[in-house]
Amino acid sequence: MARGSRLARVAALGLLGVVTLTACTPNNEFWRWGWPDGITDEAYAMRDLWIWSVIAALIVGFGVWGLILWSVVRHRKRGDELPKQTAYNLPLEIVYTIIPFLIIAGLFFFTVVTQNKVQERSDDPDVTIAVNAFKWNWQFVYPETTGTDGEPVNTVGNSEEIPILVVPTDQRVRFEVASADVIHSFWVPEFLFKLDVIPGNENGRDNVFEVTVREEGAFVGRCAELCGTYHAYMNFEVRAVTPADYEDYLAARESGLSTFDALESIGQPGDPQTTQAWDLVDDAQRADG
């Protein structure tokens, strides 16, 4: 019994040492287990859910491993005499039923809370952007603007140009996503979120989401739903800028400047920084031999 207690103390000290060495903070990369840090309020919520779920799993795991080790040591063979046999233990079985239920209920509760936060939609977002997906590229429309042609400012990609989606930081941005043909999926890894774009929904309830971006920079975006031959080339870039630069960018676009020139006018690189276009014609010719 004393040896088992010593082993339990050693295991507890080892766990405490791991926690101490890794600082046990939600932002610590150790606890993320490869999960990205994220750049939006919604991403932070999902990251924290993932981290604390992992920590809870580790606590349960260490508890189970400790009990296994204690059982091995405590009930090791000491002779040929058969140890006392127990047919059942009702109190212990009740505990073994209640504890997993509480764990599942806790995980369910925090998952629903996080899901509601991620899918929450405000009555009056600061910015609304329409995202149109098609085989095999993207169009980004800023409906609250008017270009020189009388139509809303938009950026559309093609086989030679990666479309750049410009968004402001620290503002509530609503994306209304639609597909012109098949199911696509709007995915920005740094958002820690993707939304399947179902055709025919006409920017309905299921094709709308909102984020608040907290970091400036360039972030790659992709289609995450296999949508045909050139699905792998269906990339875009999110360019997060300050609210002032965002307004200047839209003003430059409304005056007739291209996406490239408008970005250059606010001190941003005009070309994508995270991905590149592929020559689909050359790729097709190479595939044909």
Could you characterize the architecture of this molecule?
The chain has 289 residues and is an alpha+beta fold. It folds into two domains: 2-74 and 89-118, no CATH class; 127-287, Immunoglobulin-like (Sandwich), CATH 2.60.40.420. 39% of the residues lie in helices and 21% in strands. It has helices spanning 2-21, 29-32, 41-74, 90-118, 243-254, 259-265, 280-287; strands at residues 127-134, 137-142, 153-156, 164-168, 172-179, 184-188, 193-197, 208-212, 217-223, 235-241. The protein has a five-stranded mixed sheet. A five-stranded mixed sheet has the order 4-10-9-6-7. A hairpin with a 2-residue loop joins strand 1 (127-134) and strand 2 (137-142). The radius of gyration is 27 Å and the shape is elongated. It holds the Pfam family COX2.
